[in-house]
Amino acid sequence: MKLTHFEQQEAYRFVLTFENGEVREADLQDLIGQYVPVDSLLTAHIDTEWGCLEFLNGRVDIEPKTLYRYACAAENKQAA
């Protein structure tokens, strides 16, 4: 499953749209905070071939399945 669209909301909070049509919101700080400083979040883009969310010209990327599982877990944690 690929990432098809994203929107940065505030700091590490992103709204993520996946190719199955699901839209998830997640704070990615725990996932990438030690690798991507907040002032580098604007480097985010989608690798169109793999559907990964990349930062810093591809030096940091999040595989789409990992991103999906992380976003789902984060939403479930908030709901609890």
Secondary structure: elements and pairs:
Layout: E1 3-10, E2 13-18, E3 23-27, H1 29-32, E4 45-47, E5 52-55, E6 60-62, H2 64-79
Antiparallel strand pairs: 1-2, 2-3, 4-5, 5-6
Report the radius of gyration as a whole number of Å: 12 Å
Mean pLDDT: 93
Backbone structural class:
alpha+beta
CATH-assigned homologous superfamily:
NE0471-like N-terminal domain
Order of helices and strands: EEEHEEEH
Q: What assembly state would you assign to the polypeptide chains in this entry?
A: single chain
CATH class: Alpha Beta
Strand order of the largest sheet: 1-2-3
Might you state the CATH topology name? NE0471 N-terminal domain-like
Number of domain units = 1
Q: Percent helix among the residues? A: 25-40%
Strand content: 35-45%
**Uncertain segments:** none
The biggest sheet amounts to: 3 strands, antiparallel
Distance between the termini: 26 Å
Principal-axes shape call:
globular
Number of helices: 2
Number of strands: 6
What is the CATH architecture descriptor? 2-Layer Sandwich
